[in-house]
Amino acid sequence: MALAPEIYREFEAIVGPAYISDREYILAALRQPQPHSPFKPVSPVAVLLPETTEQVQAIVRVCNRHGLRYIATVSSLISFAYPNGPNTIILHLKRMNRIVEINERDRYAVIESGVRHGQLRTELMRYGLSYPVASVGPGGSVLANFACSSGDNHVEYGTSRSNRYLAGIEWVTPTGEILRLGSLATHAGWFNADGPGPSLRGLIKGFAGQWGGLGVVTRIAIGLDAWKGPPEMPTEGRSPRYRMRLPADCHKVLIFKFPTLDQVHDAMQAIGRTEIGFSVMKYFNASAALLATESANEFWELWNSGLFQRELARPLFVYLSTWSAEELAYEERVLHDIIAETGGEPVADEVLDIYRENMDFFVLVGFLQRVLRLGGAWAPTKLGGDSVSHMFEVAKAIPEFFDGFIARGQVLDAPDNFMITPAEYGHQAHIELLYLWDRNQPDWAEVGLQVMRASLENDLEHHHHGSSPPRAKAMLERLGPRYSNCHVWIERLKAAFDPNDVSNPMP
Amino acid sequence: MTAMNRLEDLRYTMESCNHCGQCKWVAGPRTTGWRFAEICPIHMRHHFDAYSGQGLLNIARELLDGELSYEPGLVDLIYSCTMCGACDTACKSIRDMEVLDTIAALRAHCVDAGHGPPAPLTRAADAIATHGNVFGRPRAERDGWRHTPAREEGGSGPIPEPSSSSEIAYFAGCAACYLQTGIARDSARILAAGGWDVQILGSDEECCGRLLWQTGQWQAAEQQIERNLAIFRRRGIKTLVTSCAECFGAFRGIYPRFAAVEVEVLHISEVIARMLREGALRFDREVDLHVTYHDPCLLGRQSEPYVPWQGEIKSFGLHEPPKTWRRGHDGVYDAPREVLRAIPGVTVTEMARHEENALCCGAGGGVAAANPVLARWTANERLDEAEATGAAAIVSCCPQCRGNFTAALPRRDRALDVFDLTNLAARAL
Question: Which CATH number is B224's domain given?
């Protein structure tokens, strides 16, 4: 279905002729099936590249007038950046890529939608500032992670989920009003997303991500932390063998292994109580093997050796980042006491050296997309949040639904490929199970959804907060009652704010 | 063709793309800030995803599957890519995908379907077939550079007589033979100063064929490659030295797709660096200059030897037999820098994007001929980056880069000097 010429001209008048296209070969880049899915997304009818908030507002108003649906996106890695129905345009916010302000004194940065992690993180290092980079890779939009998702990351133990760093939001509502939320609304500056002024940040994000989200976020402010590293990336080597060592007197990575998940839990909790460390994680093991290798063949060589299954089945990754050598020595002593008390032991040096040599794992995670390497058919499930203890309960139930898929050869034999990351020194936690499946298998098209459904049913059976409300209506309705009937609220909010149902339509 | 190079052979790559966007960005650990973080010239210029490695994969897949037709503008988009390989290297830092090979195969697919290349590139192919060079200049003038001083920088000294029996040959390439003859003259002087007795191919030297392969004219490329390899065999050449990054990259990365290459191929920067290390060459004269070095795409990330692979991609991406990947790690990056730093008085400051993350000059892939406006635009982007270093000159190892930078200079406020490495090395002799 093509865009009517008169509507095209309206859009063209807003963004200029160079920044709109309805050519099929331009749209071809916005309708490709993801490797984990056999389904080809519906083609958008046009793509627009606005440059200002006012242009976004004008586009949204045209959409409302003509009943056109719109999806705003930046990097488009995830499948809900693509249309799921006809008559949809894509707002590609890449040209809105300014770093508006870096405020060293009050420690916040104001950015537009198109600013990427690689850009902002390295820019801030010059000022001695930092923020937790979401585990998406350097090309991901900072704003998308902070405003529209939970933004889980490798250092959330010592920081938090990135959506907790929001300090102000500029928002084009689904009907085309420009709202400035939190302290910004009262002209008090970009320092607090909750006030003085209206706080709607949870509503914008929705718990269903972009599909449940509303309107277009065009600018945000994020709070910043101090950066304890050098002003530039201390990277050595050439692609794909980059190495990044942070100064050894203040930065150290240690990894321990435990006989049981309960012991990992006890160690994690104990570390949180002492408030030492910057990153603490029970990390994935198959994903770790993917990150550590340069090709699928190398991965298989490593995986078949059994090293990562032995050493990283129940690991605890700890990254200590301090201001002084004395502080580092203190934290290390405390850590070793805890590990001794909880029955852990260091992993083999050949595993530890990977992380000692490349601390980018805790900075920008520049090689994160390697987890997609095995043909690309992968998905995360769970993605929920609750207390540390609850996340471990969820983890212990994983074999109940997951082992069958492994036994049938439908997914990679990696039952321990899940992560539990505490946030804010253990006041809350996040769980994620990554599973990979083989596109060469005849039933591959079904596997992704089957695992997700089984995971959800397992949570329902045990009354777990393991899965976050999913981005599919039927599954959302199944899980919603466990989350204060969020599915009902999402629909009501959607109807109230988006009466024409044009913003980020749900399937 | 001895390897899996056709579009239908590259379906795994096309179907594996997750749209992560890495093909548009400098590798994360090498990013230095907001500015100079992008890596794909056409995406920087146009912003639409279609103008990127990812977009070209998507277009290739739809064309292959008959879901996209050749509507006006499509071929121009496909031929706007400079084939710089930045997307390929960036993608291969994390994935097992052949992005650049797919773009090349996409162009061959267009040619096979009768929809490419743009007219200036078919004219270039005709010129190569008729005259042995991309400019359509007389074959007999191919070694005119030896007898006539260059009009531009370089080549002011006397040129030694070439050997007729040496197993080492100097291959100047079309641009240095006809347009930037100072590079050829300086190269010949440097080789002689270092004690290397080389033969000059004269009218036997023909275009390397790089442009033909990059623009999808593979039948012509194959014929050109076979002709050149026959000449090398007939003249008993064991080692080929070239001062042209594009010829060098072609011999290393394109020729093995069509035939076994039995000659050792060296870039002049590698030879000079070796001469300096062995004490065969000394730089005695000071060249007081602050420079930045621009890595040519085909000398850097695209110069790893191509190893043909034929096999099966099994479950979970396992390649059987194992494949030798060209990830841009082992390109010629150190030798030019070693040479520059050995010149008394020269100081070198790196640009933000360098080595495997260097931004293309904009001239590659036939873009200088087919889309000169885009080529100049990209050159200006690179010159902005060079100026940001505070350097007074930008140095490269490729006549195409030098030519494109020079062409972009007149519209700039501040005039950077543009040199080939051989120009500065010869000045220091």
Answer: 3.40.50
Q: Enter the tokens of residue A417.
A: 């490929």
Q: Do B12 and A375 touch (CB under 8 A)?
A: yes
Domain count of the fold of chain B? 1
State mean pLDDT over A162-183.
89
Write out chain B residues lying below 8 Å of A241, CB-based. 329
Range of the domain at B162: 134-277
Burial of A427 (0-12, 13-18, 19+ CB in 10 A): exposed
The answer to whether residue B328 neighbours chain A at the CB level (below 8 Å) is: yes
Structure tokens at A334: 């405390």
Asked whether residue B160 is domain-assigned, the answer is yes
What is the pLDDT, as a whole number, of residue A210? 47
Tell me the CA end-to-end span of chain B in Å, nearest whole number: 44
Instruction: Kindly state whether residue B394 falls inside one of the protein's structural domains.
Output: no
CA distance B404 to chain A (A): 25
**Tens digit of each residue's pLDDT (9 = 90 or more) over B192-240:** 999 999 999 999 999 999 999 999 999 999 999 999 999 999 999 999 9
Residue A200, pLDDT > 90, answer no
Whether B243 is covered by a domain: the verdict is yes
Alpha carbon of A258: minimum distance to chain B alpha carbons (Å) = 29
Q: Can you list the domains of chain A with their CATH numbers? A: 5-95 (3.30.43.10), 99-226 (3.30.465.10), 235-362 (3.30.70.3450), 374-468 (3.30.300)
DSSP run (H or E) holding A258? none
pLDDT tens, B145-164? 998 776 666 667 778 888 87
Residue B36 included in any domain: no
Q: Across the interface, do B318 and A297 touch by the CB < 8 Å criterion?
A: yes
Token duo for residue B143: 């070694």
Please tell me chain B's helix, strand, coil percentages from 3-state DSSP, rounded to the nearest 5: 45, 10, 45
Residue A205: pLDDT band with limits 50, 70, 90 = low
